[in-house]
Amino acid sequence: MNSTAVTLCFLLRDEAAGTHVLLGTKKTGFGVGKIVGLGGHVEPGESDAEAACREVFEEAGIVVREHDLRVAGLIEFVFPARPEWNMSTSLFTARRWTGDPVESQEIIPEWFPVTSLPLARMWQDAEHWLPLALGEGAVDAVIILNDDNETVASAEYSLRGV
Ligand SMILES: Nc1[nH]c(=O)nc2c1ncn2[C@H]1C[C@H](O)[C@@H](COP(=O)(O)OP(=O)(O)OP(=O)(O)O)O1
């Protein structure tokens, strides 16, 4: 499958009210208007982990070190009607970082309880894989979108390391 390498990185913070995850409203580009994870394209010569750290800094001003990333899985997003949008997406979580989230040109960052994710405002497929990726293991998934490039035609996933 010819797909673009991208990353998503989910910062997790334990509070009295429970664990929260940093997501953000996309202001530009792919998925504009949706609440998404922080992340983006892996540049040539970069590892997935390097790209995740760079994107978190560019999109929210937060410094995450590679050794504080936990591998949370791999998702193939398949857009049969727009194969040029196909993405192979490395997922990470992190519980240690430096700084407070700041709005960037791309993202308005916001914390959400992991037990109350804003799924209605996210990509429709997120309900299938995001709760699993934020858990203890790692999720491997293949999400095939319908020709509207929004709704889910099929979602197959399995859990690693639980
Ligand atoms: N079906 C889907 N569900 C989802 O939750 N996230 C998806 C998705 N398909 C793609 N993504 C994510 C993966 C990746 O982090 C992001 C696309 O990368 P970017 O945010 O970098 O896109 P942009 O077009 O804004 O690119 P840049 O101009 O390079 O920033 O969209």
TrEMBL record:
**InterPro entries tied to this protein:** 8ODP, NUDIX_hydrolase-like_dom_sf, NUDIX_hydrolase_CS, NUDIX_hydrolase_dom
Q: Which cofactors is this protein said to need?
A: Mg(2+)
UniProt-listed Enzyme Commission number(s): 3.6.1.56
Instruction: Quote the catalytic activity from the record.
Output: 8-oxo-dATP + H2O = 8-oxo-dAMP + diphosphate + H(+); O(6)-methyl-dGTP + H2O = O(6)-methyl-dGMP + diphosphate + H(+); 2-oxo-dATP + H2O = 2-oxo-dAMP + diphosphate + H(+); 2-oxo-ATP + H2O = 2-oxo-AMP + diphosphate + H(+)
Q: Residue ranges of the Nudix hydrolase domain? A: 2-138
Name the enzyme group at the top EC level: hydrolase
Q: Which residues form a coiled coil?
A: none
Write the record's keywords in alphabetical order, separated by commas. Hydrolase, Magnesium, Metal-binding
Pfam families linked to this entry:
NUDIX
Quote the function comment for this protein.
Answer: Oxidized purine nucleoside triphosphate hydrolase which is a prominent sanitizer of the oxidized nucleotide pool. Catalyzes the hydrolysis of 2-oxo-dATP (2-hydroxy-dATP) into 2-oxo-dAMP. Also has a significant hydrolase activity toward 2-oxo-ATP, 8-oxo-dGTP and 8-oxo-dATP. Through the hydrolysis of oxidized purine nucleoside triphosphates, prevents their incorporation into DNA and the subsequent transversions A:T to C:G and G:C to T:A. Also catalyzes the hydrolysis of methylated purine nucleoside triphosphate preventing their integration into DNA.
Quaternary data: Monomer.
Q: Which family does it belong to?
A: Belongs to the Nudix hydrolase family.
Q: Which PANTHER family match?
A: 7,8-DIHYDRO-8-OXOGUANINE TRIPHOSPHATASE, OXIDIZED PURINE NUCLEOSIDE TRIPHOSPHATE HYDROLASE
Which protein is depicted? Oxidized purine nucleoside triphosphate hydrolase
What is the native source organism of this protein? Answer: Arthrobacter humicola
Q: What is the lineage of its organism?
A: Bacteria, Bacillati, Actinomycetota, Actinomycetes, Micrococcales
